[in-house]
Amino acid sequence: MPAYRLRQISSPKAAMIVACVALFTDMFIYGLVIPVLPLLPAAVDAGPTATGMLFASYAAAMLLVTPIAGVLVDRRGPRLPMLIGLIGLAGATLLFAIGGPYWLLLVARVLQGAAAGLAWVASLSLIAATVPLERRGIAMGMAMSMVSLGILVGPPIGGLLVESFGHVVPFLLAAALAIVDGIARLVFVRGDRPAPHEPTSPLAVLRVRGTVPVIVVVLISAAMIAAIEPLLPLHLTRTFGATPLGIGLLFGLTVIVGAILNPVVGSLLGRVHARPLVLAGIVAAAVGLVLLAFAPSLWMVVAGMVVLGVAVALLSAPGATLIGLQGQQFDPPAIGGSYTLFNLAYAVGLMAGPAVSGFLAGAFSFAVAFVVTAAAILVAGLFASARLPSGLLSRPTAPVVPPAP
């Protein structure tokens, strides 16, 4: 089945280059600031609460901008939102390099989150609009691997650079990477004409049969890892005497497993139904959390983190692929609307996972928090996997034409 081309914006190879570079750059810079931002004098002087607001403002800005990004993609194509996002990212890195005052850091963090909202929606839409169906699963898997790779290498490089050269150098590196990213966006993504019709809204995509289960899968893929982030490090330190380096390596192991398996799972989407893959991911997520809850040794913790890495791949690659297909059932296609839903679901998962697990751990215990979270993921995941669209194995259906306003 030929790929739907969003008014001939780019070739499939160019789409992959631009999307992967954009997603890697966004998550690399996101990770880069994690060890640097709390150490900036303005953040130290402002205190822990204000520093927490700095980190939270990223997700808040991403949530606010995501719907706007979807409308821009469906009206003008991915090029414009990608270039606007690049300007925001460049501005953020420059403000971070200045290092203060606090309000300036807050502005930088908001710009960074807004740029991420634009980049994620536009990049994934670019892949969905240009890569043929038979290769789209593996393309989405590779894109998710770039996200994982950026998260993996950003924090250690940021920490190393700030220790060796001070807080300015990490952001100079980020600015250099943003320049490379910008060149890719300018060269490989073609200009686009305005759409002749009003774009289909994300709510219309949400009402298509099978979309809600896909959204649940995306939410779970984000929430299962986010749920362990505030609890597992302290538990490992108290129970096993783990060091910060050891904890970082454990989380890195999960990221590496997911990054390796994402393209593999994506390549399977054109050969098998998405449902057994997602079902296996749901089971793996629940098993991984239970292993962490009752691990008697660090080796069992390692096993749990590996299983969670497998779950990440089994959920994220199908979720990123299927949501785009839901939007392509419309005439005109609602690719931007689809990835608006993807971004919103992912952001909600990032916020809900720590909130739920933190509440349960405070009210009961570490083990109860992980077991209840695993049970919730299992119940919601079983419901969602049974109702997923078949995805790349589906035969083309008549497009849905939204009612005239």
Describe, in plain words, how this protein is organized in 3D:
By secondary structure, the protein is an all-alpha fold. The chain has 2 domains: 9-190, MFS general substrate transporter like domains (Growth Hormone, Chain: A, Up-down Bundle), CATH 1.20.1250; 200-394, Growth Hormone, Chain: A, CATH 1.20.1250. It contains 15 helices and no strands. It has helices spanning 12-32, 41-46, 48-76, 79-98, 102-130, 133-165, 168-188, 202-206, 211-226, 232-240, 244-268, 274-294, 298-327, 335-363, 366-385. The chain is globular, with a radius of gyration of 21 Å.
Biggest pleated sheet? none
Give the overall shape, derived from the CA principal axes.
globular
The secondary structure category is mainly alpha
Considering DSSP H and I runs of 4 or more, what fraction of the residues is helical?
Answer: over 70%
SSE order in H/E notation? HHHHHHHHHHHHHHH
How confident is the prediction overall: mean pLDDT? Answer: 83
**Looking at this structure, what is the CATH superfamily of the largest domain?**
MFS general substrate transporter like domains
Number of strands: 0
Contiguous uncertain segments of 5+ residues? 1-8, 394-399
CA-based gyration radius: 21 Å
Name of the CATH architecture of the largest domain: Up-down Bundle
**How large is the count of helical segments?**
15
Here the CATH topology of the largest domain equals Growth Hormone, Chain: A
Alpha-carbon distance between the two ends: 31 Å
Strand percent estimate:
under 5%
CATH class of the largest domain: Mainly Alpha
Count the domains.
2
